[in-house]
Amino acid sequence: MNSNRRILLKQRPQGMPTPDDFAIVEAPVPALGADEVLVRNRFLSLDPYMRGQMDGGKSYIQAIDIGDVMNGHTVGEVVESKNAAFAPGDLVWGPGHWQEYAVLKSPPLRKITGSHSPSAWLGPMGLPGWTAYVGLFDLARRSRERPSWFRRRPARLARWSGNSQSDTACVPWASRAAKRSADMRWTN
Fold it and tell me: What is the tens place of the pLDDT at every residue in 156-184?
């Protein structure tokens, strides 16, 4: 464990990202400080918000600088810990970025519990699911009389948001702007 493979942003993508936009480099495995945890990442996220970070233009989230490790949450296994809440072998979720090893603190590092697949923490149990949950239950303040709209919602959230809305007696709708796509409506 003396090498850490990392994926860096090599250049701003022009159109769809390609392998030429990234570089895989080797770096030393980071050393642990007080209260930190060394995690070997097993799964990494690829989420819509990352496109804005790669483009480097105006966005609600800070851009990734050329030469930086790609941002993103990961699911991994604790290898070494100087934090009493985590032990080697624990499965965890946190901002480990696109690299084999990451040094993280808690918070934001979280131990994975429950019977969900570890990779689910990068979809419905992770940031995309949290975004859908907050949008639906905190920001939208839905009622039975008012339909809820999802414009171009990611496919991996489609089932989750539809199911969560049926639990709240909402009438979910989804729409896509593309000419070849039809509007869809789900009712309770």
Answer: 455 544 554 445 545 544 444 443 344 44
